[in-house]
Write a structure and sequence with these properties.
Blueprint lengths: L4 E4 L18 H16 L6 E6 L2 E8 L2 H12 L6 E8 L7 H8 L11 E6 L2 E8 L2 H12 L6 E4 L2 E2 L4 E2 L2 E2 L2 H13 L8 E7 L2 E8 L2 H10 L7 E9 L2 H4 L10 H14 L8 E6 L2 E8 L2 H12 L6 E4 L2 E2 L7 H14 L9 E7 L2 E8 L2 H12 L6 E4 L2 E2 L7 H14 L9 E5 L2 E8 L2 H13 L4 E8 L6
Parallel strand pairs: 3-4, 6-7, 6-8, 12-13, 15-16, 15-17, 19-20, 19-21, 23-24
Antiparallel strand pairs: 1-2, 2-3, 5-6, 9-10, 11-12, 14-15, 18-19, 22-23
Length: about 475
Amino acid sequence: MGRLLKMILGGALLLGAPPLWAQTATDAATVKAAHERLALALGPSARTLTVQSEDGHVTVTGRVESLLEERRVLQLLRMMRGVRSVHDTILVEPDITVTDQELQAALRPVLEPLPAGAVDLHVDQGHVTLDGTVPDWSARVQVQDAVEGMRGVRSVRNQLVVEPAPDVAGLPSADAAILSRILRAVQMDRRVADAVVQVQVQQGVVTLQATVGSAQEATILAELAQQPGVTFIDDTRVTVDPQLREARAASAAEAADRDVEAAVLAALARQPALKGMLLTAEVGSGQVTLAGSVRTLDALETAESATRTILGVQAVHNQLRVEPSVARGDRALEREARRRLRQSPLLHGARRTVGVTVRQGGALLSGRVRSQLEFHHAEDLLQRLEGLVALENRLRVEGLPRPDDTALRQQVQRELFWSPWVDSDEVQVQVKGGVATLRGEVDTVMERVAAEANAREAGAEEVVNRLTVAGEQGG
């Protein structure tokens, strides 16, 4: 077993440190990289956290102000190369006082989309318990996500039971059909397509057994199992072996256009943000054109990102239109936007002044926040607001110095090294004036997309992605 390592997260980013991409993913390097990633994403909140790693099994302890911060911490750690598992012992202590009665009243709108009386919500000193029934697993996840996003919530105990209809959206809910959909989803998802997965389904209960290359891939497998008719997902037999990451196939797998089209439409149908929307996907030589209309900016981005995960997709041409189902004036949209920002557990308190104005359906965010997490969270909140057709984010992250080009290049290279999707040896990074340019040849479209996302997370103001994909044209 590896030596137990511990580091208190805090202080400045170590931009002048020796390049981690020249090392292996040892426990020491993992803890150091975790420190840097969390400090960059969470700002001052990262100072309260402690990370330990033993043979890639990571434990994180400390205190945060919201469940949203806790969720982001776990996501960042799971997305690190070499991490086998993440044990969460974080304590959520909101810095505001909300009575149980106030919290109960604020949470009622969360349950409005569900049948009346289906879900019972109990609050005890900020700890929320959910009881009752929901029609599918995605609804169960949606309710929990919405509750976790409310100010004053310390924890959520989700006891909701899935009771699917005999026939969900015209699709049979028999175990054999559920099994077929899960296997097909895994086979066509480029993030986990090379994993050997065993799936069992009995009376709607799904059991997954697999060994994957990263903790994030284990999370993705569980998400792909959220098919119509599923009542419970047991993923305790999914284990992580980082060596599988290094042994991935070096060439992009091919798929017939008809298979790509079917997989894209299935992936879109699984997205809660796209429920009830009529979308089309035309595929020719791996080029996917999305058409139709969506109700929110979030749905627009969700459709494109879900499409890019499908094996065989070389490029996505997004021709979707944002067409809200209900017309709302600028003043009404502005009031609702301010209400959402005000209720967020991340966007209140000292050193945060977030403002929003709406003109002709376009929103402008301005002010200051304390971290990249808060910056992106404010944007995400408004992208889900039906009625907005455009969004510009001019928020400023206070206390986050702009690195010079040399330092930013090192940050980008670190992110690429620790990514579970990218082989950093294949990517050359140049930075000029805060703009990162990526060059080289990678194995898959997913790797190209992930590399660009890593560069943005590292702090690049703009990314010029000139990566090419082996064996593909026009990607």
